Amino acid sequence: MNKADIIELVEKTLGNRDQAKVAVDSLLEGIAQSLKKGETISLRGLGTFKCVQRKARQGVNPRTGEKIKIKARRAVRFSPGVQLKKAVN
């Protein structure tokens, strides 16, 4: 499933493709902006998105075997909720 598929699902409920696209785009933009601020997003039944800090570390270039330094960065983690885990299993 991709973004277009999600828009189609929302369109079935709203009855209007333009409104569905705006709704999905604003939801995704809101999630991205909140994560950028470092906020945690909890969607009951789905799970939790949170931003975590990754430390700098040493890596290896698989082609050359050369050691490289990987910079510290922020990453997004997702923890599935209980209902999602049950639905999948």
What does this structure look like?
This protein has 89 residues and is α+β, with helices and mostly antiparallel strands. It folds into two domains: 1-37; 40-89, HU Protein, Chain A (Irregular), CATH 4.10.520.10. The chain has three helices and five strands; from the N terminus they run ααβββββα. It has helices spanning 3-14, 17-36, 82-88, and strands at 41-43, 47-54, 57-60, 67-70, 73-80. The strands form two sheets. A three-stranded antiparallel beta sheet has the order 1-2-5. Strands 3-4 form a two-stranded antiparallel ribbon. A hairpin with a 3-residue loop joins strand 1 (41-43) and strand 2 (47-54). Helix 1 (3-14) packs across helix 2. It is elongated and about 55 Å long. The two termini are 18 Å apart. The model has no long low-confidence stretch (mean pLDDT 94).
In the CATH hierarchy, what is the superfamily of the largest domain?
Answer: IHF-like DNA-binding proteins
The backbone outline, from C-alpha atoms, is elongated
Total helical elements: 3
Portion in helices: 40-55%
The quaternary organization reads as: single chain
Q: Describe the largest sheet.
A: 3 strands, antiparallel
Distance between the termini: 18 Å
Tell me the count of domains.
2
Share of residues in strands: 25-35%
